[in-house]
Specification:
Blueprint: E1 9-12, H1 18-29, E2 33-38, H2 42-54, E3 58-63, H3 72-87, E4 92-97, H4 112-133, E5 137-146, H5 159-179, E6 185-191, H6 200-204, H7 206-214, H8 224-235, E7 246-249
Parallel strand pairs: 1-2, 1-4, 2-3, 4-5, 5-6, 6-7
Helix pairs in contact: 1-2, 1-8, 4-5
Length: about 260
C-alpha cells in the first residue's frame, strides 16, 4: 500500500464497529496515527486497535458518550494528551464524523427523548466536534462526515434518522465555505445499504434483501470496505480538489 497518509493524524468517531472500524483500519493502513472513539463498544474498539497494530499500524481508542455535548471538549483534551505523547504535537489532520446510533423509529413510536438522542449523536455531536477541533485542525486538513442516502431519499421507517442525516449534508456545505480559506476540505459520504449489524434484521428477511439488491445497480449490499475506500480517497492528496460534496456510495441504489 502507498502509505498516502504517512505522518498524518486522524480521529474517527464510532470506530469500534461497522463503517467506522473499517475506516479506522484503512486510514491506519495508509499510514495515519488513528484515534477512534467508542461508547458501549469497548471490546470492539480494543479489537480494532489490536488489528491495526497487528498489521503494523498505530491507533488508540478513547471513550466518548456523544449524546452528552459537554463531554466533547474533554474528549479533545484527552486526544491532545495522546497526540502530544505519541507525535509531540496535538495537530489533527483528518476528522471523520461517523458515530451513530440506531435509526429505527417511525412516526408512531418515536418519543421526544428518542428524537433528542438521535439528533444528539447524528447532528449535534458532529457540529460541536468540529467546533472543538478548529484550533487543532491543520491547514489543508480534511473533514469527512458519514451521512446516508436517506438524507436525500427519506425513508418512511426512519424519519428522524433521515432528518438528522439531511442536517449533516447541510452542515457539510456550510463548513466547506467557512474552512475553505484554510485549505480544509469538507465532504460527506452517503452510504446506501451496507452489511452492518444495524440492518442485520433486514438482511435476514430474504424478500427484503432481494428487493434491495434488485433496486441496486450493482446488485448487492455494500461492504464496509467500500465506504472506507471512498473516505480514504477524500482523506488523501488525491481528493484535494473535492469539497462541499455529498458523495453517494450506494452501488446505484434506486437510480
Amino acid at each position: 500500500m502507498s502509505k498516502s497518509l504517512a505522518g498524518k493524524t486522524a480521529l474517527v468517531t464510532g470506530g469500534s464497529r461497522g463503517i467506522g472500524r473499517s475506516t479506522a483500519e484503512r486510514l491506519a493502513a495508509e499510514g495515519a496515527l488513528v484515534a477512534l472513539t467508542y461508547n458501549a463498544g469497548k471490546d470492539g474498539a480494543e479489537e480494532t486497535v489490536a488489528t491495526i497494530e497487528k498489521d503494523g499500524g498505530n491507533a488508540f481508542a478513547l471513550h466518548a458518550d456523544l449524546v452528552d455535548a459537554e463531554s466533547i471538549p474533554h474528549l479533545f483534551t484527552r486526544l491532545d494528551d495522546e497526540f502530544t505523547q505519541r507525535k509531540g504535537v496535538r495537530t489533527l489532520d483528518l476528522l471523520v464524523n461517523n458515530a451513530g446510533n440506531s435509526g429505527w423509529g417511525g412516526l408512531a413510536d418515536t418519543t421526544p427523548d428518542s428524537w433528542d438522542t438521535m439528533f444528539a449523536v447524528h447532528a449535534r455531536a458532529p457540529f460541536f466536534i468540529v467546533q472543538s477541533a478548529l484550533s487543532r485542525l491543520a491547514d489543508g486538513g480534511r473533514i469527512i462526515n458519514v451521512s446516508s442516502g436517506a438524507a436525500s431519499r427519506p425513508m418512511q421507517a426512519v424519519p428522524v434518522y433521515s432528518m438528522a442525516k439531511a442536517g449533516i449534508n447541510n452542515l457539510t456545505h456550510a463548513l466547506a465555505m467557512e474552512l475553505g480559506p484554510r485549505g480544509i476540505t469538507v465532504n460527506a459520504v452517503a452510504p446506501g445499504w451496507v452489511r452492518t449489524d444495524m440492518n442485520a434484521a433486514v438482511r435476514e428477511n430474504a424478500d427484503m434483501a432481494a428487493a434491495i439488491e434488485a433496486d441496486t445497480a450493482l446488485g448487492r449490499f455494500g461492504e464496509v470496505s467500500d465506504i472506507a475506500s471512498v473516505v480514504a480517497f477524500l482523506a488523501s492528496n488525491e481528493g484535494r480538489w473535492v469539497t462541499a460534496q455529498v458523495i453517494e456510495a450506494s452501488g446505484g441504489y434506486k437510480l
